[in-house]
TrEMBL record:
The keyword Repeat does not apply. GO terms for cellular component: membrane; outer membrane-bounded periplasmic space. Pfam families: SBP_bac_3 (PF00497). Gene3D superfamilies: Periplasmic binding protein-like II. This is Transporter substrate-binding domain-containing protein. The keyword Signal applies. The lineage of its organism: Bacteria, Pseudomonadati, Pseudomonadota, Gammaproteobacteria, Enterobacterales. It comes from Affinibrenneria salicis. One of its GO terms (molecular function) is ligand-gated monoatomic ion channel activity. Residues 31-248 form the Ionotropic glutamate receptor C-terminal domain. Belongs to the bacterial solute-binding protein 3 family. Residues 1-26 form the signal peptide.
Length: 251
């Protein structure tokens, strides 16, 4: 066999193995390895040492549709995308906004929920009534989130206080260590509703879409998840989850 033909055969063989590897993830019964940062209620959080929240129940329902169990791993938010690019996980779901920057390194399902960034301040704070009032103020944000990038780009005079966990961000507002927090709408409304002592400015900073991040080399899994979500919408399970986790103003 000539050198050229040998190289061609080896290349085709390698491509074939790659395709088989990708297709194997579509087998029924094979676990879906999912990572999440379970500190973002009502999207995901820990309750009695178990994963809970809208995202968790949605992905579990998707797994049932696909006849594939879900294996959850709890990681910091900043480690979600690296878990996919290093192939330690198949999907990441944690209130992740679909952004062009993230889409360069991971795939996303079609949007499954609409959210956006909002400003949360301590009740009784009369100095911050719109996002323009944040200039020159101390604002807590969770590291690695869209809040950080948006404030850097749009309000560079804001003094960012970056923390690892969502709860830390809210606590700093409640005890008066910072003037405000900028975070996703679902988590802000959940905290205001359950903890009290804070208020959310009426005008959101952005409108964003949540997506499930999927490894770039698993297009079949991405498509399967999209199909499963459509089935859940058709049979009413999706709306039941929305009604359960986002009552009244939290939607």
């Amino acid at each position: 066999m000539s050198l050229t033909r040998r190289v061609l055969c080896n290349t085709l063989f390698a491509v074939g193995l790659s395709c088989l590897s990708t297709l194997s993830f579509a087998k029924a019964g094979e676990p879906i390895k999912a990572v999440t940062d379970a500190t973002f209620p009502p999207m995901e959080f820990m309750e009695n040492n178990k994963f809970s929240g809208f995202d968790i129940e949605l992905v579990e329902a998707i797994g049932k549709q696909l006849q594939r169990p879900v294996q959850w791993t709890n990681v910091d938010f900043k480690g979600l995308i690296p878990s996919l690019t290093s192939q330690r996980a198949d999907i990441a779901v944690s209130g992740i906004y679909i952004t062009p920057e993230r889409a360069k390194v991971v795939d996303f399902t079609r949007p499954y929920l609409t959210g956006g960034l909002v400003v949360l301040v301590k009740e009784g704070n009369t100095t911050i009534n719109s996002h323009e009032d944040l200039n020159g103020k101390n604002v807590s944000v969770q590291v690695g989130t869209k809040s950080v990038a948006w404030l850097h780009s749009n309000m560079p005079q804001v003094r960012l206080v970056e923390v690892e966990k969502n709860q830390q961000m809210f606590n700093l507002v409640s005890i008066g260590r910072v003037d405000a927090a900028v975070t996703g709408k679902p988590a802000a409304f959940q905290y205001a509703r359950t903890k009290g002592g804070v208020r959310i400015l009426p005008d959101p900073l952005t409108s964003e879409e949540y997506g499930i991040a999927v490894r770039k080399n698993l297009p079949q899994l991405r498509d399967d998840i999209d199909g499963a979500i459509e089935q859940l919408k058709a049979n009413g399970e999706y709306q039941a989850l929305v009604d359960k986790w986002f009552p009244s103003s939290g939607k």
